[in-house]
Amino acid sequence: MSLPTLADLRELGGARVLLRLDLNVPVKDGAVQDATRIEASLPTLRWLLERVSVVAACSHLGDAKGKPDPALSLAPVAAVLERALDRPVRFVADCLDPEAGKAASGSLLLLENLRFHKGEKANDPEFARQLAAPFSHYVNDAFGAAHRAHASVAAAAALFAPGRKAAGLLMGTEVAALYRMVHEPEQPYVAVVGGAKISTKTAPLAALLERVELLLIGGGMANTMLLAQGREVGRSLVEREMLETASAVLRRAAERGVRVELPTDVVVADAIASPTRVEVVAADAVPADMMIVDIGPATQERFAAAIAGARTVFWNGPMGVFETAEFAAGTMAVARALAASKAFTVVGGGESVMAVHRAGVAGAIGHVSTGGGASLEFITGKALPAIAALEA
Ligand code: ADP
Ligand code: MG
């Protein structure tokens, strides 16, 4: 791993730093609804503010279409940052404003939403050049955006020389944990994969198959695997066009000697919203008019025992429709099993991370990735554009 960290930065006295953060927070009527990502950015901000002359933070927010959109302004974030850091934050209404570089020593700036310019998502070299021009150094702490080749994380980062660019503290922690899963997993390595659809996870599944000893599959994805094995799954969520992919996963696992465990019992319901019938049935006895909504208690126990015996565990994707309390038991059982395990445990994925928080066990997990899509891409072993640009 050759990712430069903050300690690798040189000539910091008088430095003007462009700091890419993930400040993509929910905003409603001009107020930040959830400040988790802002709070997560504070350690790197504080580290820089103690050592450099000017920090200009930048981020995207929402899916702005390459032109200004007041509803997607980062201005409300400036107010939250001011309070959290107890110092003034100068909001710069255009991320390309060249005045940003002329701010007085000791200034903290927040640049407006990068996606107000088309060049950001296009990874446009000219946009990157203008964004980077006022600054001597570059720090990227936006792991959640690391898998996208966008200008602020890719083309702009490439413009800075070694010693003048680095990963921030969050990015460093994310990469170290995920690197261990990809390159140095201690065996037995067990992956738990679930979530809605197999189609969104074929690449990470294939990559995990090459590294793990045991794959535990639950969630909607397991329905498609069960169907591929010739089981009837009633009205469950399935992806019929993915049956061949599901079979290929099972064949590759057999070739490699990787054990794959599917649910042997499942919770079925007649509806997800306001169900009138909820039952536990064997996985080969799903009634035609019911749908699978969770793994059953015997499967929970089997999965938990497998997790307890592991040295490394990666988990992505809930075991059932955990947003509904009645269908959350399987997902909560897996969350608790990871928390109780002595293994090095990593959880990645939007809903999976929510589930870990809901189970109240986030503190007992080795690493809870904030990366969502980025962590799944990292697991495939592919070089992420933002990381490649920092390492170049
Ligand atoms: P993550 O964000 O952790 O990667 P996904 O986005 O792949 O996970 O999937 C999460 C969603 O999968 C949850 O909203 C959950 O309700 C849904 N899900 C899990 N099991 C089932 C199931 N058996 N049927 C339908 N949806 C399911
Ligand atoms: Mg998701």
Task: Output the keywords.
392 residues; alpha/beta; 6-stranded parallel β-sheet; 14 helices; binds adenosine-5'-diphosphate; binds magnesium ion
Structure description:
The chain is α/β, with parallel strands linked by helices and 392 residues long. Helix content is 35%, strand content 17%. The chain contains 14 helices and 17 strands. The protein has helices spanning 36-49, 75-85, 118-122, 125-132, 155-158, 169-183, 202-209, 219-228, 243-256, 297-308, 329-340, 350-358, 373-379, 385-391; strands spanning 16-20, 27-28, 31-32, 54-58, 90-92, 108-111, 137-140, 165-167, 189-193, 214-217, 259-261, 265-269, 278-282, 291-295, 312-316, 344-347, 367-368. It has a six-stranded parallel sheet, sandwiched between helices. A six-stranded parallel sheet has the order 11-10-9-15-16-17, with helices on both faces. α7 (202-209) runs parallel beside α9 (243-256), α10 (297-308) runs parallel beside α11 and α11 packs across α12 (350-358). The longest helix is centred in the middle third of the chain and has 15 residues, at 169-183. It is elongated. The mean pLDDT is 96. The structure holds adenosine-5'-diphosphate and magnesium ion (MG). Adenosine-5'-diphosphate (ADP) is lined by residues 194-196, 200, 219-220, 237, 292-293, 316-318, 320-321, 323, 349-352.
